[in-house]
Protein: Helix-turn-helix transcriptional regulator
Organism: Bacillus mycoides
Amino acid sequence: MNVYPNISYIAKLIAEPTRAIILDCLMNNQALPASELAYMAKVSHPTISSHLSKLVEGNLLTVEQHGRHRYYRLANQEVAEVIEKLGTIAPTVEVRSLKQSGQLKQVRYARTCYDHLAGKLGVEIAEKLLDREFIILEDGEYIVTEQGKEWFLNFGINIDKADIKRRVFAKPCLDWSERRYHISGWLGSAIAKLFFEQEWITKMDKNRA
């Protein structure tokens, strides 16, 4: 009897090309209706409905009912981290147009990974915070130093009031494009929120960049 987790079940769910597109489209932690996901995946409504049902059944997605419409999102940050890490070992997509080249550059420079920043920008933020000893890595998680708490407070991020009841505070998340680590968890989310609120970055339309 195999007592280990059924990895092949999850792998089979993720491996199907249309389902992989669905998961990637939801990597920015937004909830989307089936109609929009069908458009993005270039498949019919019955096809997208079948794939969404399987992803919900496999606990990779959750569904929210708003009136007559159902909206789908990633089940949690752990799902996003699995997708991000798979990108580090996946073959590079062949660029066939100038438009694709531009999109790839945007995604590699800055994108969202669930609710935190990834890409070159996300990695450089993590490394600068480590270099300045505002955070330190201990037992696989990031810890904010006293100096770091003061620095973050200047930007309205109160570390002592972090809500970590339902999620980890801060940990390294392997970045698929940089092959280095950015910050996930509550702190990563707080940093991303700060960048968007201050309009230091803005979201591109229809992708994670």
User: Anything to note?
Assistant: The radius of gyration is 18 Å. Residues 10 and 58 are 7 Å apart (CA to CA).
